[in-house]
């Protein structure tokens, strides 16, 4: 039974399942839904990967990567495979088969910690950014790095829905650079410098599904929504409480809903805030229309399911939110 | 981090041998392009090249979606956040008559129900129509689904023509709230209605309003027909349908035509009045109404008539009578309605214009009933009146008439010799119209019988039917007071009356069956009256037997127990059984006070000490001369020198000394000589029949002269001298008995250890069996271990019996009844066969409904155990292993050499012609085996 996005619907979301399968007191560092929306993967500081069944709301599998550590886990296009960045030993990205817990491939290249991994919407391309000032492009079929982009301190990367544009956000120089994915060795075709305050403190950059907007999720008190083509600020999202510090990089706590109209963000006051972009006129300050509270839960990571009306938040355990029954 | 940025070349791969295979030059190394290649161009926005740039270029994984499905999570107690969704619902709007079962049935279609709670009115306890249903949580977590389904599909359920509404109710507060709301609403309604009637309670006017709709049609604006008085009286308050003479002329059309028309309407009566018309009278107002509704216009014999319906007949109070066709309630209601409306029906016949009674007549049945309830006194007095009439009729009037008749009879008898058959015309009219006790022409026949020489016809049977043609019991009392007793006995002395009927003491009358009726002939059986008169007179003295429906032995055989035969004098024990309380004792004293001395036995009582000593002496003597099974010694009061005494309930009186003096020196030299049964009975215990009455199981042996006591086989007639000799002999018996008591305790101890040893043995056997399950050798009957020492020998009760060789204590297992185990059908078949082949005894013992043990041809010696009405053993069915076995247990402590008996427990067949007489001869003998 499908329901349409609406403010009322989004405001009616309630936590429905609490899945605490990571080791106690260990934090979850990343969440990712697979392409079908049926599965959810979480990686934690306890060096384990937890696979959840989003359809049932239960835990499906636990996988351990004690040797290499794991973070920034991403589903491949196949629901049984995933890639994740290692935290121990070296910084290779590892391609894991979930069903038989065997590594398929290693993607060696990064010399320092990987800060972001993104899969291209179609095809086998994968992009990763690391603290070694590189953004690499990989074809997951091959261990050879397909492209390398040298850029200062890339914090986050995002791929547009068509798969042609790679947006790289550099917090240090407060710019977002857009590259053609086939010409990563060339210069970016567009560079956005949003007019923001002191520091953006970027955590995440995401294209909306309609390709029109670009969200800069920040750890600061304000998120930025830019026009994906022009780079102009469409909206400034405020109202949430920024998180204090982060001991570890997470996969982000803000993002677009699959219809591209609403923006969600986790907040330090144990709530998830929602903004409606239709309210925004150009460069206006936007306040959230709803906040979803759940005191037991600190939404350091928030992820919306691409194919189902549900989203997940995580800190030490995963919470699945469902809208209230119609 | 930013400081250590060392710029480096960017590159893009051009050929990846991993994916694309070896290069054109065969190399397996990737080929890169650095920094944009040789001619780096500023790239353009690639998105602009896409026509109609739209996300969702084919098969985009994260596509734009405006609608998404919502997954449903079942409640999981561990994982779910929040409380479990409710699995309880509240159902509202049910009918008050709905039962819990109905509700349960309907709602269990959604899921299994855990509990149902019906909200009840706190005062009346009636169901309010609100109930809370909680579904079971099986399988786990589904309870909420059932509740959800019930709520969603609430309109599918229809109970008692109502569609209840359903809602969730997790805590039950909702159902309570609804209930209180409903109660408040009801209270408010009640109050409102109360107030609107100026504080009066609901009166007949209100009822009237309630039921107005039903009976408006029959408001009877039509005037009542002008019926003749007797017809009005007859109809009374009954409902009737009237066909006017103007429509159907009564002189032309017969009543039967009208009757035919109404024949299916269940009318009570039809009347025709030439002046007014036809009346079709009904018992029941409803049937009348229905009949009227069916056809308001009728065509009878070509005439068209419009029917008039008068549901309340001719409403006057004077017609209220037993003759009313409809219920009394109706009539009472109609008349007692509205306490202020009597003026309209003060007299009858009512004038036509006032025939239509004012509004209250329109009252419904309900109102009528309400009125009835308002005047119970009237109903009660009516009832009483009726009862009084009937009682008077039955009791007093009938008696008076009977008395007159008897008196007339007596008179006629005294004139019997002079007159011939004189018709008792005087009596006849007086007897006319009596409902019971009709005696037409009684005196004439009686006279004839008296005078004619009577041929004695020996009528054996006095059927029970005949006996019941007596006067009703209540008139028996009159018979006592009647002065006809003398005449009755006079009649009787003409005939031979059996000796045993002793008239002076009526209480000790023998059974009626002994009466031999010497009436004229068998043809006279038709005239029951004369015999009745006789019987009645005879019965006069037998008041105590009237109405005795309890078990009786067959009447033609006189079974006189010692209690019945007055000629038997009981000994001290026997007399003591008479005295059960102080009253009896006083009476006995009075009786004994004038007892005369007997020859040879004088126990004159001088003082109390003597009494005590004497009684002890008597009892002691008795005890020493008898076997342990006690009994009461009776003596016959005759003038014979030889006292004929025999024992009732005792086994044997005395034992003859074993030594008999033979003339030739020894028994061997004496030769063979037949020893009579009587003598044999003295030293052979089994020859002494226990129950002398039925000795030999042969009823023909009964002879009426000596009251059925068979002298041959029973009473041992010992001259008094021999009694003295017995004493010495029986001393041994006494000793033995004393020692037996001591042995018992030891014996118990021994038996206990024995039993323990047996159990160990049994356990060993079973263990062995389990090791080698195939071996048949170890088949072992546990019950054999518990068997006591018994032997079979000739029995005093019947043929052979089983005797205990050792003393057996109470509740001990004695022996198992072993025989062939057969099915019920086989047992039936065999029973018939055995009877045919002459085996008189039955050795079939039932284990359960379908299995029987047959020890006739094959079995153990337990088959020899005889029946006794006061047994010392009982049979029980126990399970050994998996089988059921019949086992005989001891009911009492049994001494050695005592015969074992148990109650056969045959089915009581009171009506059967073949009742088996019991030979046990015990004190509590029931007389028959079945």
Automatic annotation (TrEMBL), chain A:
<dbReference type="GO" id="GO:0042800">
    <property type="term" value="F:histone H3K4 methyltransferase activity"/>
</dbReference>
<dbReference type="InterPro" id="IPR037867">
    <property type="entry name" value="Swd2/WDR82"/>
</dbReference>
<dbReference type="GO" id="GO:0000723">
    <property type="term" value="P:telomere maintenance"/>
</dbReference>
<dbReference type="GO" id="GO:0031124">
    <property type="term" value="P:mRNA 3'-end processing"/>
</dbReference>
<feature type="repeat" description="WD">
    <location>
        <begin position="107"/>
        <end position="142"/>
    </location>
</feature>
<dbReference type="InterPro" id="IPR015943">
    <property type="entry name" value="WD40/YVTN_repeat-like_dom_sf"/>
</dbReference>
<dbReference type="GO" id="GO:0005847">
    <property type="term" value="C:mRNA cleavage and polyadenylation specificity factor complex"/>
</dbReference>
<feature type="repeat" description="WD">
    <location>
        <begin position="256"/>
        <end position="285"/>
    </location>
</feature>
<dbReference type="Pfam" id="PF00400">
    <property type="entry name" value="WD40"/>
</dbReference>
<dbReference type="GO" id="GO:0031126">
    <property type="term" value="P:sno(s)RNA 3'-end processing"/>
</dbReference>
<dbReference type="InterPro" id="IPR001680">
    <property type="entry name" value="WD40_rpt"/>
</dbReference>
<dbReference type="GO" id="GO:0003682">
    <property type="term" value="F:chromatin binding"/>
</dbReference>
<keyword id="KW-0539">Nucleus</keyword>
<feature type="repeat" description="WD">
    <location>
        <begin position="21"/>
        <end position="62"/>
    </location>
</feature>
<keyword id="KW-0853">WD repeat</keyword>
<protein>
    <recommendedName>
        <fullName>Anaphase-promoting complex subunit 4 WD40 domain-containing protein</fullName>
    </recommendedName>
</protein>
<comment type="similarity">
    <text>Belongs to the WD repeat SWD2 family.</text>
</comment>
<dbReference type="InterPro" id="IPR019775">
    <property type="entry name" value="WD40_repeat_CS"/>
</dbReference>
<dbReference type="InterPro" id="IPR036322">
    <property type="entry name" value="WD40_repeat_dom_sf"/>
</dbReference>
<dbReference type="GO" id="GO:0048188">
    <property type="term" value="C:Set1C/COMPASS complex"/>
</dbReference>
<keyword id="KW-0677">Repeat</keyword>
From TrEMBL, chain B:
<dbReference type="InterPro" id="IPR024636">
    <property type="entry name" value="SET_assoc"/>
</dbReference>
<dbReference type="InterPro" id="IPR044570">
    <property type="entry name" value="Set1-like"/>
</dbReference>
<dbReference type="Pfam" id="PF11767">
    <property type="entry name" value="SET_assoc"/>
</dbReference>
<dbReference type="GO" id="GO:0003676">
    <property type="term" value="F:nucleic acid binding"/>
</dbReference>
<keyword id="KW-0539">Nucleus</keyword>
<dbReference type="Pfam" id="PF11764">
    <property type="entry name" value="N-SET"/>
</dbReference>
<keyword id="KW-0156">Chromatin regulator</keyword>
<keyword id="KW-0158">Chromosome</keyword>
<feature type="domain" description="SET">
    <location>
        <begin position="788"/>
        <end position="905"/>
    </location>
</feature>
<dbReference type="InterPro" id="IPR012677">
    <property type="entry name" value="Nucleotide-bd_a/b_plait_sf"/>
</dbReference>
<dbReference type="Pfam" id="PF00856">
    <property type="entry name" value="SET"/>
</dbReference>
<dbReference type="InterPro" id="IPR035979">
    <property type="entry name" value="RBD_domain_sf"/>
</dbReference>
<keyword id="KW-0489">Methyltransferase</keyword>
<dbReference type="GO" id="GO:0032259">
    <property type="term" value="P:methylation"/>
</dbReference>
<dbReference type="GO" id="GO:0005694">
    <property type="term" value="C:chromosome"/>
</dbReference>
<feature type="compositionally biased region" description="Acidic residues">
    <location>
        <begin position="477"/>
        <end position="491"/>
    </location>
</feature>
<comment type="function">
    <text>Catalytic component of the COMPASS (Set1C) complex that specifically mono-, di- and trimethylates histone H3 to form H3K4me1/2/3. COMPASS recognizes ubiquitinated H2B on one face of the nucleosome which stimulates the methylation of H3 on the opposing face.</text>
</comment>
<dbReference type="GO" id="GO:0048188">
    <property type="term" value="C:Set1C/COMPASS complex"/>
</dbReference>
<feature type="compositionally biased region" description="Basic and acidic residues">
    <location>
        <begin position="202"/>
        <end position="217"/>
    </location>
</feature>
<comment type="subunit">
    <text>Component of the COMPASS (Set1C) complex.</text>
</comment>
<dbReference type="InterPro" id="IPR017111">
    <property type="entry name" value="Set1_fungi"/>
</dbReference>
<feature type="domain" description="Post-SET">
    <location>
        <begin position="914"/>
        <end position="930"/>
    </location>
</feature>
